[in-house]
Specification:
The structure holds 2 protein chains of 2 kinds.
Chain A lengths: L2 E3 L5 H9 L9 E5 L16 E4 L15 E4 L15 E4 L15 E4 L12 E7 L13 E6 L15 E4 L10 E4 L3 H13 L12 E5 L15
Chain B lengths: L1 E8 L8 H11 L7 E7 L6 E7 L6 H9 L4 E5 L2 E7 L3 H11 L4 E6 L2 E7 L2 H7 L9 E7 L21 E8 L2 H10 L9 H14 L4 H11 L2 E8 L3 E6 L8 E4 L3 E5 L15 E3 L7 E4 L2
Antiparallel strand pairs in B: 1-8, 1-13, 2-7, 2-8, 3-5, 3-6, 4-5, 9-10, 10-11, 11-15, 12-13, 12-14
Helix pairs in contact in B: 1-4, 5-6, 6-7
């Protein structure tokens, strides 16, 4: 198992080593020591390897990730998993603002809380937060699912498109065009799948969640305006 | 972009290391503000004595000249481009009047029983070494690394800003209603020495506290009256407080242990603190005042 100590090796050298891996590499488990909150750790990976970060990560950890599994054994800074395409990122601590922003796919699991703007403009990623999320989360969220076991802050889902939001606790307020919606069987199935994927099999009941989504009054083309074009 | 650091010690045994800890934190934040840097340290103080930190050229002998002019003993502790003058608190007004009249080339960066406040243009690490921040002891301190966005890179524009006794403020962000607030505060007798929006925020808090508010109450009021983006870290003689604007536009992370409370714009600056791996690390919530007070 390769061990990279960021107290002696530069972050750029670490990322270059990870980018140089062949798709069939046998070096499938990497450990990064002394991350010290450095930014842009393990960004832009495109191989099915696992990278364990032994501490706190700075901004944009795992950004643009494809295929890889990244585990942050601490807190993650702004924009963890930003624009992730596939793979899995697991933060054992808290995440800062804009976790999973613009991400297209994959699974982002945060064991602690995520602060403001979690899932901003998410485009297909699934996000499971075991704690609470801050204000302005899922702003302009387009697709994918955001599951929150705790509470959500102000203006959840403001200007949301088609993402599905599931919150077990209190929602402080909903943003413009975001409404509570019926939790149907397909949503229960999706929730079950995501909770299981986040390692919460059986411990959390899907019936305890409420679903929120778009009222579709803001973004849809309105036939009354057809004459304007 | 700017960088902020702050450190408030709970464990007296750490006090000799305050400056060293703060210097390390400040230098890590160079990426966020390489233009200039400044810091305030709350060290020892004597009842009835005020410390004036004075900045400018040709400082040698300024204490003696001041003493002769106002007829009171003045101690003089030079430190590079600054000097700390100690004199009877009752003579502070006379000392400031003499400095303004006879040495208009000098600026008083801070005053109070315990505060010393230094600022200079240059890389934060160089600024810290220039004043030997690492050698300073104290109970709490705050620092700032500046990337100027709206006003010039000058020493006067560097943070912290001090507008009241033993008070200082550092700011990451920008205020949009500083001009109207400045006019109101000037009418209320708060003096400003720069055109900087952050100095207005400092003046606002000084005004509120002069009117009887606690530090926490002044910051609560600021959430109503200050319009713009801000993360503030504020120091008083015995207090230390943090507040962010209601949409938490600017980053902030804190670490608290039994021994200290530390603040930084990014976790990187906290990574070198003793015992930080066991600290409670959290992001201050938007529009919530966090305040600590020493007994």
């Amino acid at each position: 198992m390769p061990v990279v100590d960021l107290a002696v090796t530069s972050k750029r050298a670490l990322n270059e080593s990870l980018h140089a891996l062949a798709p069939d590499t046998n070096e499938t488990l990497w450990r990064v020591e002394n991350p010290g909150g450095q930014h842009a750790l393990a960004v832009g990976l495109d191989v099915p390897v696992t990278v364990e970060i032994a501490g706190h990560a700075g901004y944009y950890c795992g950004g643009m990730n494809r295929q890889a599994t990244i585990v942050v054994e601490g807190n993650a800074g702004v924009g963890v998993g930003e624009n992730m395409m596939s793979g899995r990122i697991h933060v054992l601590g808290d995440a800062s603002q804009s976790a999973g922003a613009t991400a297209h796919g994959g699974l982002l699991v945060i064991d602690g809380n995520a602060s403001a703007r979690c899932g901003t403009s998410m485009k297909g990623v699934d996000i499971v937060v075991k704690g609470s999320i801050g204000p302005m989360s899922a702003f302009m969220a387009q697709s994918g699912a955001l599951v929150v076991l705790g509470d959500a802050g102000d203006a959840l889902g403001d200007s949301i498109y088609e993402a599905r939001l599931y919150v077990r606790g209190e929602v402080k307020s909903l943003g413009a065009d975001c409404i509570e919606k019926e939790l149907r069987d397909e949503h229960r199935a999706e929730l079950r799948r995501l909770l299981d994927a986040a390692g919460l099999d059986g411990a959390v009941k899907v019936e305890d969640f409420r679903r929120y989504g778009s009222a579709r009054t803001l973004y849809n083309f309105h036939v009354d305006h057809a004459g304007a074009y | 972009m700017c960088g902020i650091v702050g450190l408030f010690l709970k464990d007296k045994a750490l006090e000799p290391k305050l400056g060293a800890m703060l210097a390390t934190m400040l230098e890590v934040m160079s990426d966020r503000g390489p233009d200039s840097a400044g810091f305030a340290v709350y060290g020892t103080g004597d009842d009835g004595i005020v410390k004036l930190t004075v900045r400018g050229p040709a400082l040698a002998g300024v204490g003696d000249a001041l003493a002769a002019a106002i007829g009171t003993p003045v101690t003089e502790s030079p430190n590079d481009s600054h000097v700390v003058l100690g004199l009877a608190t009752a003579q502070e007004a006379a000392a400031r009047a003499w400095l303004a009249a006879e040495r208009p080339d000098l600026a008083v960066t801070g005053s109070g029983k315990r505060i010393e406040l230094y600022k200079e243009v240059g890389l934060p690490g160089d600024v810290a070494r220039r004043f030997d921040l690492a050698g300073m002891s104290g109970t709490h301190g705050i620092g700032h690394t500046r990337m100027a966005t709206e006003s010039a890179v000058t020493t006067a524009g560097a943070h912290p800003f001090s507008t009241g006794p033993d008070q200082c403020l550092v700011h990451n962000g920008s205020l949009s209603n500083h001009s109207s607030l400045r006019r109101m505060l000037t009418r209320e007798g708060i003096a400003f020495t720069t055109e900087n929006d952050s100095e207005v925020a400092a003046g606002y808090l000084s005004w509120k506290m002069r009117e009887g508010a606690s530090l926490a109450e002044a910051l609560e009021a600021g959430l109503e009256d200050l319009d713009g983006f801000f993360t503030f870290v504020v120091g008083t003689e015995n207090g230390f407080a943090v507040v962010r604007d209601p949409i938490s536009c600017k980053p902030a992370v804190m670490a608290e242990t039994d021994d200290y409370v530390a603040f930084a714009s990014e976790y990187r600056a906290l990574a070198g603190l003793p015992g930080v791996e066991k600290a409670k690390v959290f992001e201050p919530e938007p529009a919530r005042v966090y305040a600590w007070e020493r007994n």
